[in-house]
Design brief:
Radius of gyration: 25 Å
Structural class: mainly alpha
Number of helices: 6
Oligomer: single chain
Distance between the termini: 71 Å
Largest sheet: none
Helix content: over 70%
Order of helices and strands: HHHHHH
Length: about 170
């Protein structure tokens, strides 16, 4: 029989991060700020397959051939085998982490845009037919020009993809 303070019992417990309902909320403490800055790298340490980690497979697909190209360029420039090996070893993590960071930042911006659009839809449905409808329409009118330009650009991209144009 184990006592209530047995260390074996504590190993079965897991810590659970609190659920943050507002992803855009400012961190409460300095430690929270540090954790938020490195949150994208936590995904890598969760012991999942590479294909399930967001952007990691893409980063490696970009980094490995990029490292090969860098090492070939170093060989053509120096013909020094040690320098070629050093270039390959150094360029792989730099290219991979650069692409990983860029991809995660893009996904973060996409998520923020999705949240913004859902908030706009929710505000529109809540204000229709109320006294606040005019306020919402005035707020929405400020962004109509930018949204119309974005829609035009997206339509252009979609039509190019469908016709096979470059």
């Amino acid at each position: 029989m184990t006592s209530p303070t047995d260390p074996k019992d504590f190993s079965k417990l897991r810590s659970v991060a609190p659920i943050n309902t507002d992803p855009n909320a400012a961190p409460a403490t300095v430690w929270d700020k540090i954790k938020q800055n490195f949150a994208m790298f936590i995904e890598v340490s969760k012991n999942r397959p590479i294909s399930e980690t967001l952007c990691l497979k893409e980063a490696l697909i970009f980094g490995i051939p990029g490292s090969f190209v860098c090492s070939m360029a170093a060989f053509l420039l120096t013909t020094n085998r040690i320098r070629v090996f050093q270039t390959a070893v150094i360029s792989l993590p730099i290219l991979s982490m650069g692409r990983f960071t860029q991809c995660r930042a893009a996904k973060h911006h996409e998520r923020k845009a999705t949240i913004l659009v859902s908030k706009m839809i929710r505000a529109k449905t809540l204000t229709d037919g109320t006294a606040k409808q005019a306020e919402f329409e005035r707020l929405f009118a400020k962004s109509k020009v930018e949204l119309a330009e974005l829609e035009r650009q997206l339509d252009e991209i979609i039509s190019k993809q469908q016709t096979g144009g470059t």
